[in-house]
């Protein structure tokens, strides 16, 4: 069987990572959550005081070359989790503080250059499902299957709100909705690699679709290509 590359892009909180992870497990592929990498850089910048009113780009750029972002497997869950300087930071990168700044950090050229190169190296052998914003357009323009996921902002905010509450975070729905809208705006309007549907991507609106149906449909698309 051919080992293909699958690119899943789309707006914030469209359920890309759940779907990508499930698909990778089913196909025996590796899953790469590129959003987690941008979040890890943001966590680093916050910890190091490199974000004031806005990110201090020159200061961050100086620290980037030596900055180590990676993944390790959680043996209990079987999931791959993101590491920063060798330490697992999966538990810290999804909070609203990181979410608030991540799109500004992800708009910086030096950050994208570093992470895109690393993502391309990780995907070089094929057999990969990668999710993000620029996978089908920039990171893996030759991917064998490209999916572009959308859903209404309210539905996406509601999903993310429930997720955060489940994790014990104190948030208001309006705050989460505003964050989803802000990130959509910054991600779609930034100069470098803005969020776009690749011309050859399949658009997939999951506003009214359960997880199982989504998985079955995308899995069927993958089997057609493999
Ligand atoms: O996927 P997730 O919502 O965790 O991504 C967090 C943020 O990282 C996005 O809002 C976007 O600003 C940035 N990102 C990106 N390119 C990617 C993946 C994520 O710019 N490939």
From TrEMBL:
Principal localisation: cytoplasm
Its transmembrane ranges are none
Question: Where is this chain's protein located in or outside the cell?
Answer: Cytoplasm
SUPFAM superfamilies on file = P-loop containing nucleoside triphosphate hydrolases
**Keyword annotations for this protein?**
ATP-binding, Cytoplasm, Kinase, Nucleotide-binding, Transferase
The EC number on file is 2.7.4.25
> What GO cellular-component annotations does this UniProt entry give?
cytosol
Q: Does the keyword Secreted apply?
A: no
EC class, as a word, reads transferase
Q: Which GO terms describe its molecular function?
A: ATP binding; CMP kinase activity; dCMP kinase activity
**Which reactions are catalysed by this chain?**
CMP + ATP = CDP + ADP; dCMP + ATP = dCDP + ADP
Task: Name all Cytidylate kinase domain ranges.
Answer: 6-220
Where on this chain does ATP bind? 10-18
Xref: Pfam families: Cytidylate_kin
What superkingdom does the record give?
Bacteria
Which GO terms of type biological process are on file?
nucleobase-containing small molecule interconversion; pyrimidine nucleotide metabolic process
PANTHER family per the record?
CYTIDYLATE KINASE, CYTIDYLATE KINASE/PANTOATE-BETA-ALANINE LIGASE
Q: Which family does it belong to?
A: Belongs to the cytidylate kinase family. Type 1 subfamily.
- HAMAP family recorded: Cytidyl_kinase_type1
The name this protein goes by in its record:
Cytidylate kinase
Organism lineage reads as: Bacteria, Pseudomonadati, Bacteroidota, Flavobacteriia, Flavobacteriales
**Gene name of the encoded protein:** cmk
